[in-house]
Amino acid sequence: QVHLVESGGGLVQPGGSLTLSCAASESIFGSYAIAWFRQAPGKEREFVATIRQTRTTHYSDSVKGRFTISRGNVKNTVDLRLDTLKPDDTAVYYCAAGRPILSSIRDQNMYGIWGQGTQVTVSS
Fold this sequence. Notes:
Blueprint (H helix, E strand, L loop, with lengths): L3 E4 L2 E3 L5 E7 L8 E7 L6 E6 L5 E3 L7 E5 L5 E6 L8 E8 L12 E4 L3 E5 L2
Parallel strand pairs: 2-11
Antiparallel strand pairs: 1-3, 3-8, 4-5, 4-9, 5-6, 7-8, 9-10, 9-11
């Protein structure tokens, strides 16, 4: 059973940056797409970004141009760089692994392996 563990969350001021990391318990990036989702208080979980097995990336409109998903420098990790953070980015961020078809890349039901989440709080 593959496990995912997120790290890197914290408190940051508006306009600041953070890098989240998703570590897999084994090498899965050749077989799975890795995505980041987030859930703010009182809201449904939403898609943020994904990197596919081919390393192509997709972003939600709300984070495009501010967030960057990439394979990490540490083996079996995927990073999510968060720049120009806004208070609306405050949420628990989850990474997930799955094999979605392209038309369903943003659908959380296409991802069957999830981490426990890491809190990001953007506040002055």
